[in-house]
Design goal:
By secondary structure, this protein is an all-alpha fold. The protein has 12 helices and no strands. The longest helix has 25 residues.
Length: 273
């Protein structure tokens, strides 16, 4: 490859070399769509993490890692004679033009809501053209999504038909109802003897929690990431506090650990220890 090679062409060439049965990388040659899929999902989450941290340097690197996943899948498909990277790029370009007739055509919409309705209508037409027979308002929602994201998409689609609570109040009431149902299942006895019912009721609870986030216009993934980061930050702080006192955290009783947790929270909020 010479210095004038476009970066994307260089990357495609690198991947082809890695997958070459004659002198390629043994690990890369062993992979298929199913084994690479988890890495693709992981890289997408790492992109989201870089965005959450507002780290543009990391975002550049993570976007590159995610692009590599696209190139990897396209290379494997090309080897099977199914499609190549250029076909992927062409298909998404065509789709964007088709779904934005107000930009690339003569369509006009009053506002973003009307444009979104048209977007969904175009997607339905695409599914029909592809021979899909499912005419439900819920058609086309991928089963490969993280379940919390799929829950929100299911609820949003149903809401477009009018099947939705008018505001957060009834959702909060339903949340309390689901909590009581979970409590009742715990009261039945040993968890090992009631796991299926607990899974069912906790699933209902999480589904309603996702609906509450939707009504609040809060992204469930972003909210959970913030909660995870908060927990990690405070737990690491309590570990350090305990270590500074010469009392390793695992040696302490729960009430003693909770005292360190409270200290960590006070310090984080600017309080005096």
């Amino acid at each position: 490859m010479d210095d004038a090679t476009r970066p994307i062409d260089r990357l495609l060439g690198i991947m082809a070399r890695l997958r070459d049965p004659q002198g390629g990388c043994p690990w890369d040659l062993q992979q298929d769509f199913s084994t690479i899929a988890p890495y693709t999902i992981e890289e997408a989450y790492e992109v989201a993490d870089a965005i959450d941290r507002n780290d543009l340097g990391a975002l550049k690197d993570e976007l590159g890692d995610l692009l590599l996943q696209v190139v990897f899948h396209a290379q494997m498909a090309s080897e099977q004679g199914a499609f190549a990277f250029d076909d992927v790029a062409a298909a998404i370009g065509d789709k964007m033009v088709r779904r934005h007739p107000h930009v690339f055509g003569d369509a006009r919409f009053a506002d973003a809501d009307e444009q979104t309705l048209n977007w969904e209508a175009i997607k339905r037409a695409e599914r029909v053209a592809a021979g899909e027979e499912d005419r439900s308002a819920l058609a086309g929602i991928s089963r490969g999504l993280p379940e919390w994201q799929r829950a929100v998409k299911l609820q949003s689609r149903a809401a477009r038909t009018g099947f939705d609570w008018p505001g957060p109040g009834p959702v909060i009431a339903k949340l309390h109802e689901e909590i009581e149902e979970v409590r009742a299942e715990f009261d039945r006895g040993a968890v090992e003897d009631n796991r299926a019912r607990l899974e069912d009721e906790i699933g209902d609870l999480l589904f309603v929690a996702a609906n509450l986030a939707r009504h609040a216009k809060v992204d469930v993934g972003a909210a959970l990431r913030r909660a995870n980061l908060k927990f990690e930050r405070r737990f690491r702080a309590m570990e350090q506090l305990a270590q500074d006192d010469g009392t390793p955290l695992p040696t302490l009783a729960l009430d003693q650990q909770e005292a360190y947790w409270d200290r960590a929270k006070r310090l984080e909020r600017g309080g005096r220890d």
